[in-house]
Predict the 3D structure of the following.
Amino acid sequence: MKKIATAVLLFLITIVFSAVPPAFAHDGPDAEDASSGDMDDMRNFLLHLKEHRGRVSSDDSQTEFRNALRTDNGVWRHGDTYVITVNKSGDGEAPSSAQSGDIIFFHAKHPAAVSGSLSGIAIFRDLIEKVETANGEAVCVQDTSRKYGNHICAVEDSDPAGFGAGVPFIQIVGFNHESNEADLSKAKDACPEFTAENLRSRGWLSADMVNDEESLVSYLEGVVEHVSEEIGNAPGQSGNDAREGVSLLRMVQLMPCWREMPWESGSIYFYIVTDTDKMFGIFNGNTPQLQDRTLRLVDDNGVEIAKRILEEVRRQDDTPNRGFLTYLWDDPTVVGDEVVCQQREPVPGPFAEDEDEEVFCEVGSPVPGRSTGTSVKRGYFIRTNFGVGETYYVVGSGIYPKSREGSSGEGGGGCAITSGSGKGTGTPAFNLFLTTAVLFLAILWGRRPGEEFLRKNGRRGD
């Protein structure tokens, strides 16, 4: 009877703990609350955001958090309620002529708006002026026209560690605008100018000159040299002792420049990802939606793209920190090879350890966990720290030597995603259930559960 009673107790514990919210749960007001509430609800949501961000310390976790700001519908983004981060004047990193709010550092709804400005919108300027004199307190304004929202709030903030540690910025919630209202003209006016002669003198190739592996290598080497120079010359730099946050801020300022010649042409563009297992996107010259998203994607041939890229650039051979990889991807010049979401649905994370939190699949956006297309791509990659600090990145580009049959106009893309289609056995609650089930049987049968099983399953999700 004692064995049965103990087993029943363990079973009840399983039920209780399965109902407890996992570690990623949020105990404060979320975007849905703010969207349907009043001014106080929006302010409380903003303060919850600031408090939560203050607990994010590592570079990877910051990128994961920015990803959550973009995708976790109902938590940090819901309908027209989302987060925008802009510069704070006097931070010493943005151009000296930039006033607070002139540069978008992060945009949860329109990633391509990064580096742009919303200062041309009157209610936005009014909000920023109020933040400037608020001494760190959250401020709110009401848009009586409701064109840009109803209750709009902002507060000064900063990252506690990692990229941009200590650099102040402004968090904004409740402000909604059309993508074309973000003014990129100032950012583009400040782009470094390169003539064909400038490029030739440096031995660099423009994107329109790339047509084979040899030219691809030359193009990407020029990209790395260019980015390294721009970061090295950024205000506040002092060699390897410089704060690495300046690197990321300078990249943000240059992003609109990198989506034009000489760095982008047709199917040739470059991207920058973190040198970590999840390979989070810092910049993508063709698909801004992949910024702050993981490159842990699998193509239709089963190639785990991030894993294979890291294997190539970390291989200790005659070309360390460099490598090629052939995989399937979206060719910007081919119609019909895209793999995108066809309907708006929550879907599980791409890998078992990510499945404890669903991400939102938006119509026309890349499918979480899958390569963006079905065209054959020959990629080349360089691992670098751009000559600053100890943070490394992987810079990549590629050519499309051929297109899969039928990729221009039929087949190849449009994978529909439905809820419930995931691999739901990876959640902490399910793992706890499995562990307790083993204990249940072990108690009844008088056996001890295997240590290896407990190690692998009892600790997942920590």
